[in-house]
Each structure stands twice: as structure tokens, then as C-alpha cells.
Specification:
Two copies of one chain form a homodimer. Chain A is built from ten helices and seven strands. By secondary structure, the first copy, chain A, is of the alpha/beta class. In chain A, α1 packs parallel to α7. Chains A, B: Its EC number is 2.1.1.200.
């Protein structure tokens, strides 16, 4: 029996593969996570799946593969998660906070041990995660690869991260950078509940004419990032939505007066 | 440019693959080590090599593959090494000291930084390293896998160890268990020079009739392990061989008297 119990914190950790191109990599990833005592695999719109190459590469981890959940979007895959970490080659496009694998694993452990659902997200073989997908992540994880040749195979990246998560679950993670770990809000609402808030926030920006002709996407992207990272709880969401409602009310009055 | 300089300690670290069965794994291993800033690959009697599957899986690490050295035995592969670590699934057959990957990486770094040649050795996909091969190793490295399913893919194991070596070279290895690191004898003789000593030791045991009818292999295995682990320097080898010579001389005199 593995001393990392399958029904302990490990049961709240899912490995999410987004848009995987080669089915063999899905099988190899299943094998990689099982060797490290993890077992939950979520596939977001895999390009070819099911596929015999996936079965072949799983080599004894068919149980992980057979239990894998398939969904259409990353938002669905992480809807109930309180911590979502995206594995990236260093990205200059999105200003996400970047964690070392070891610090990321410590965060994963802390959140899962506190009862939260956690996702470790891996993008497409060639192109990684899209900006929109990274916006669903609380932080990015970067494996400190050789910058002249940083293209880890997908399953190799899954292996390294799963290895660090296992060390953390075994209590052998070691020298974690305390400042690098996300402050965990044990009462943070799951992702899906933020969407209503973001919808209202977007409406409010329109109502108060914040954009003034500029495209609204850039501001919303920054705001999403900010609030996703923060880990809002129910009361905070209610508070903020109350503020938005008042701002919207004022804007309506102002517009009515302007019209009048 | 990678901040782990290719001509620094990394240049003294070789990854040795013994008896690899699937050529694709050789290519994947080349890719894995290159992503971690290493570049020296030694192939001991690969079953199918060169092979187009190796080239395919190398995917941009062809330079590592093309520079790979092919030899017939592990003894040749590590003849000039001062530190040889064998990656194993936990083995009960051979009583080698066992290091965690992180501690192993710290040893590798310390030895390579002190100017020594270092080898990280990986066995066959199914059967690992043979006992005779493990006897050439100063210590074993064990990736703490799920005991119910510990079969890491060969390239995945190479990736995890290379990752830890990279962290050590970057100075980010962290919490090393000091007692676990091999005491490095900066003047230890390379492996090949021990063979003359072992030869004389074997002769001496015969001469003094140590075995008394038992098979000599078991005692020699234990003695090899002991002296390989110790890291003997030139003076110590000379001292020990002097002792052996005297023991042999006495045995000869005793035999002559018995004959007389």
C-alpha cells in the first residue's frame, strides 16, 4: 500500500490536460501520475481520444485512463477548484505570478489538505495554454529548463510536477519559498461562482462608461487575474457585487438625468 | 544562454543508459537531459541503435544523440568516474546505500564541482541493473514512487534525476540530508585503477585459503562494495596492496614449509 493515501489530499488533486494533440502523451501522462500516487485525470477537448496509442503508453495505468473525465473547456474542468495552477514555458504575454515546481507543490498540498479541490493544468504540446485559459489560473508553474532548449515532453512535465507533489504529500518537499506560496483562503468560492461576479463587473464598466471607446478585453483580463488570484470568499463576492449594484444604480440615474 | 554553463560542472556529468531495449527511449532520454542543461550520454550495449525511433523522439536534441558514446560494458562507461550512482527501483538484493534524488543530485554537484567525473546510471526498461553492475556503483538512487505502481518510464526517470541535478547546479537543490551525501574523497582513484587491487585481493584470499571450499563470489562482492563506496586514493591503494603482498608472501612461506 502506498503511504500517500488515495483517499487523502491526493484525492482532491486533478491533473488537467488541455487540447492534447498526441494520444500517446495522454497514456504516458496517466502512467506518470500513477507512479507518483495520483489518479485523477481530466481531459479538455483532446484531439484524438480514446485511441489505442493512449492505452499502449499507459502500460499498467489503464485504471487512471479509464476513470479520466472528458470535458469541452478548461472552465468546466476547474469549475469547482479553489486552486488552479497552469504549467507554462515562461510566458511574457500574461502577467501571472510564477511559481517554482517545489513551491507550487507546497501550495497544492496545503490547499488539498485544507479540503480544497486543486487542478494542475498542462497545455497543448506545441502551443501550451491560451491567454484565456491562463486567466483561469491562480498562478503559473515554470520548470526551470535550459532556456536554449526548454521543450519538455508533455508527459515529462507531468512527471516532474507530479514528483514534486508527491514529495510534498510525503512531507519531503523541503525548502519552500514562503512568500511564493499563494495565501490560501480556506473559504474561497469555486471558480464557477466568480463568473456571475465577472459578468456584473463587465456590465458595470459599460454602465459607468469606463472604457470610453477602448476595447473592454484588456481591463477585464487584468481584473479577472486580480480577483482569481485573490481567492474571494462568499461574503467578499456579496460585498463587491453590492458595490457594483450601487455603481450601476448611480449610472442609471445619471443616464436618466442626461436623457431627461 | 543557459546559466548552467555547458563547460562547468555539467560537463563532468554523464548519463549512462545500460542495455536499453527501446531505441525511442534513448531519444526521449536525450531530450530529457538537454532540457535540463546536460549533454553527455553514454550508451552501454543498447539493443537497437542507431535507430530512426531514437532520432524521432530526440526532437531537437539530435546533438546530444550524435555525441553519445557507445561502449560494451558499464565498467568501461564509468572507468574514469569518481562517483557512480545507479538508479534503481528499491532493491533488496544488493545492500547499497540508497539516496533520495535530491541528495543524489547534491552529491553529483559536489563531486563535479570538485573536478571529478560523475555518472548517473539507468538500467534496462524491464529488469534494471544487474547485481554485477550495481557493484560498480557507489550508491543507489531511488525515486520515491508509488509502491503499488513504481514503473517509471526510463526517460521519465532520467527527467526527474536530471531535473534534480539541474536544481543542484542552479543552487536551488535545497534541503539536502547532510548524512546522506557520500563523503567525497577528492583524491579517490578512478574505477579502473581499483581493478588491479581487486585482482590482487582475490588472489590473496585464495592464497591464505580464506574461502575454505566456499564460492569466492559472495565475499568478493561484499569487499568490492565496501572499497568502491569508500573512495580509495592512490596512497591507500598502495598501502592496502602492500599489506596484501605481505599476506601473500607469508602464505607462500607457509605453503613452502608445508611442502617441505
Amino acid at each position: 500500500m502506498d503511504i500517500v493515501a488515495a483517499d487523502g489530499p491526493a484525492a482532491r488533486i486533478r491533473i488537467v490536460l488541455v487540447g492534447t494533440q498526441h494520444p500517446g502523451n495522454i497514456g504516458s501522462a496517466a502512467r506518470a501520475i500513477k507512479t507518483m500516487g495520483l489518479h485523477r485525470l481530466v481531459l479538455v477537448a483532446p484531439q484524438k481520444y480514446p485511441h489505442n496509442e493512449a492505452d499502449m503508453m499507459a502500460a499498467g495505468a489503464e485504471d487512471v485512463l479509464n476513470a479520466a473525465v472528458e470535458v469541452a473547456t478548461l472552465a468546466e474542468a476547474v469549475a469547482d477548484c479553489r486552486l488552479v495552477l497552469g504549467c507554462t514555458a515562461r510566458s511574457r504575454r500574461v502577467q501571472l505570478r510564477e511559481l517554482r515546481p517545489r513551491d507550487a507543490a507546497a501550495s497544492v498540498h496545503a490547499e488539498a489538505a485544507a479540503g480544497g479541490e486543486v487542478a494542475l493544468v498542462f497545455g497543448r504540446e506545441r502551443t501550451g495554454l491560451e491567454n484565456e485559459e491562463l486567466q483561469l489560473c491562480h498562478a503559473a508553474v515554470h520548470i526551470p529548463a535550459n532556456p536554449d532548449y526548454s521543450s519538455l515532453n508533455l508527459a515529462a512535465a507531468v512527471q516532474v510536477l507530479s514528483y514534486e507533489v508527491r514529495l510534498a504529500l510525503l512531507g519531503e518537499g523541503g525548502d519552500v519559498t514562503p512568500a511564493a506560496i499563494a495565501p490560501v483562503n480556506p473559504d474561497a468560492v469555486p471558480h464557477a461562482e466568480l463568473e456571475g461576479f465577472f459578468g456584473q463587473l463587465g456590465d458595470t464598466l459599460e454602465d459607468i462608461d469606463f472604457h470610453k471607446g477602448r476595447a473592454p478585453e484588456s481591463a477585464m483580463r487584468k481584473l479577472r487575474r486580480l480577483f482569481v488570484r485573490t481567492g474571494l470568499d462568499q461574503k467578499e463576492v456579496r460585498l463587491l457585487r453590492g458595490i457594483l449594484a450601487d455603481a450601476q444604480r448611480m449610472a442609471r440615474i445619471a443616464r436618466d438625468r442626461g436623457d431627461g
